[in-house]
Amino acid sequence: MEDQTVPGSTPDAELRFSRFDPKDSRLQIINDSKLFSPIVTEYMKKHWGLADKGFDYNVVAVFGSQSTGKSTLLNRLFGTNFDVMNESTGRQQTTKGIWVSKAEDTNTLVLDVEGTDGGERFEDQDFERKSALFSLAISEVVIVNMYENNVGLYNGANLGLLKTVLDVNLQLFQQAGSPKTCLYFVIRDFTSQTPLSKLSETLMSYLEKIWAGLSKPDTKKDYSIHDFFTFAFVGLPHKIFARDAFESAVTQLRHKFTDRNNSEYVFVPALHKRVPADGFSTFAKGIWDRIVASKDLDLPTQTQLLAEHRCEEISKEVFEGYFVGGVKSLKAVESGKVLDEFGETANDKVKESLVLFDKDGSRYNSSVYERKRIEFFNKMATYLLPLFNQQLANLSKKTLESFTTSLAAGLAADEASGVFNFASHMETALRSSEAAFRSAAIASTLEGALDWTPDVQFNQFLIEIHRVSGDKRREAVERMVGSVQKVVVGAMKDTVIAKLNAGGPLMWGGVIDAYKDNVVFGIVQVQKRGAGFEASHEEIEQWKGNLQWQTWTGLLDTLKDETKDEAMCARLKNIFESKFRYDENGVPRLWNLEDPIDLYFAAACEEAERALNTYARIDKSITLLGDEILEDQCFARNSQHETKKRFDPACINIISSGRLQNIRDRFKKDADMLFMEAKRSMVVTTAKIPPWFIALTVILGWNEFMLVLFNPVYFTLLAITLGGLYVGYQYGMIGPAYHTGKVMVKGVLREAISELEKNGVDVPEFLKLDGAEKNAKPRRKATKKEGESSQSKEQDEADKKLD
Ligand SMILES: Nc1nc2c(ncn2[C@@H]2O[C@H](COP(=O)(O)OP(=O)(O)OP(=O)(O)O)[C@@H](O)[C@H]2O)c(=O)[nH]1
């Protein structure tokens, strides 16, 4: 058979097919250069006589390793004339490309496909994948040819290739409801030692696994392999060693393919692709073109498949056996810790894991290895990412704490010094916290992990920082304004109390001045300290308003406290006393009979009444306090509280008229008592021994006094008596001596009375001791009772005063 140029085509070398023999019914439909024959239609008409057969034709193809007797089998089954290896030349590839021939007795197109695992093509398995897919796409039946001893071998049974072909076929050509394809497994050199049913079970389990592992599109993911394929299995004994059995089995099989009446006839209508015979050439060419052009069909080679498989295994081994254990310590971040060594550990372990991966993985297909290496890296990065995020969350918390501490320290120093630099502290703390967070976050990052960015956490961190600093500033401002208010209100209170105590006509002027002076002082302080907070004009105005209001309410409270009924009574009593009991020079009065006590009393009462009226009402213009306080501020403040009424100007009445009367009544009682006391003291002073009586006594007793002084006996006795009294007084012996003397006198008296009564003398009853004692006791008791009652009276009065 000599080579000829395809008729009607350009004499291009690429279009030259290896054989063209008009007498030969075989046609190389796809040559080694992967070109589709342009004369298929012609063959359909002239050589095969199928062009006008409509659907009355069938297509069968063969798939399997080379030199496994595929061509031999096809020739036997269909009477074709495909090249068969000449046994004397050894096992080498016979069929190149895809050949088509018509079956001898039936309208069946038979495709003899170049065997797989082609040694001649080495790693270029592209053609075998494409040709296998082509066969699958256009045939009703694909004979899967394999030796029995290869059934259990994944590669030997070409299942890897079948997986790839099924995968792409599913993506490209199979649709729900499209005709099924029959995969007819022909087990060569079948020995029957393992039953065919067992072999078919093994093959089916492989096929199920293959199907499960396909990357199915969403629309086809719920379909099983049986929705697209039917399966048949047959065993053919050894062609040489069991020749008769082989021949018999082949004959039986041929009937199944050729005899429509056979119960196991293979070409059932459900398998037909529904392509009319005259369109077969176009259909087949369209399929082939699509297979060749489709980028989806960038099928991996066996080495790629192997590399995929091994690299996957290696990465799994290294990941589980080394990496996970290596980074276990990083899980400590889950307890809220910030691990300083996070980044170092993560990077080290990832690098070491990659080295281990490279050691075995780099021997495989380089492009697959590179891709798998990236996948492995991403897998480790994905594993670490939640821990990294946790580390950043912990870091954010820790840095926020140090920010707060640093800010608080700055504020404490400010508060101690009274010079506020909040804005500066805030800036310093913010900068150092930002820098600390950033550097720690970067140090924790995994090199090469592009999606590991601290940006989200950093932004969150900044939001938190600003929230905390806002809170701190608000607190600091409140403290600052509060402390100024405290000082101002305290100072104002002290001055106001002093002014109220001083009283007098200038009292209210002094009180209002104290209020105003302190407010002005406070405002200066607030403005000065507020500058360090970089406060806005509105903010400072608000602080000033608050200060004024606090001082004002402080003033009102002070006035209220200082003008309570008790306080006012005491105050009025003081005023009364200072006028009534003391003279113009402040010297206490000693009341004499001739003193005009009633006049003094009236004047003192008048003074007290005048004072009471002064205290009762602020007699200065209310506007002196500041309009904003008295109008807007009061209104604004009141509106925040339950009583939403405008400021009442009547509040300048410090003491209500009802209370005034009450104070007057209470004061009157006090004043009356003091008056009575004064009257009594006047009687006591008047009832004392008059001086003239003392002078008369001295004049009349002068001689006796001289006698005693100049008589040595009397003088000695007097000196001894005075000395004894002095010593007794010094040692507290006067009382005991008095009692002893008293007892002695009583004893003597009792003896004397007894002697006198014995001698018949009628002793008067009052001289008798018992009678004397009897009389004396009630008097003492009465005296004591008097004392007690006067004492309790005094106590009651004192209590009343306290009340
Ligand atoms: N053991 C054994 N050998 C066979 C069988 N059938 C054919 N052979 C031998 O296997 C060799 C290859 O036969 P072919 O039919 O050319 O094989 P093929 O699979 O078509 O070969 P390629 O087209 O090159 O892939 C020949 O020497 C056959 O005699 C069989 O059933 N068993």
Automatic annotation (TrEMBL):
Alphabetized GO MF terms: GTP binding; GTPase activity
Transmembrane segments: 682-702, 708-729
Domain of life: Eukaryota
Principal location: endoplasmic reticulum
Membrane topology: Multi-pass membrane protein
Domain named GB1/RHD3-type G: residues: 54-271
Organism of this sequence: Rhizoclosmatium globosum
Cytoplasmic side: 1-688, 734-803
Stretches with biased composition (Basic and acidic residues): 784-803
InterPro entries associated with the record: G_GB1_RHD3_dom, P-loop_NTPase, RHD3/Sey1, Sey1/RHD3-like_3HB
Binding-site list for GTP: 64-71
Lumenal side: 710-712
Compartments where found: Endoplasmic reticulum membrane
Similarity-based family: Belongs to the TRAFAC class dynamin-like GTPase superfamily. GB1/RHD3 GTPase family. RHD3 subfamily.
Single GO cellular component term: endoplasmic reticulum membrane
Region called Disordered, residue ranges: 772-803
Keyword terms: Endoplasmic reticulum, GTP-binding, Hydrolase, Membrane, Nucleotide-binding, Transmembrane, Transmembrane helix
Protein name, UniProt field: Root hair defective 3 GTP-binding protein
Gene Ontology BP annotations: endoplasmic reticulum inheritance; endoplasmic reticulum membrane fusion
Listed Pfam families: RHD3_GTPase, Sey1_3HB
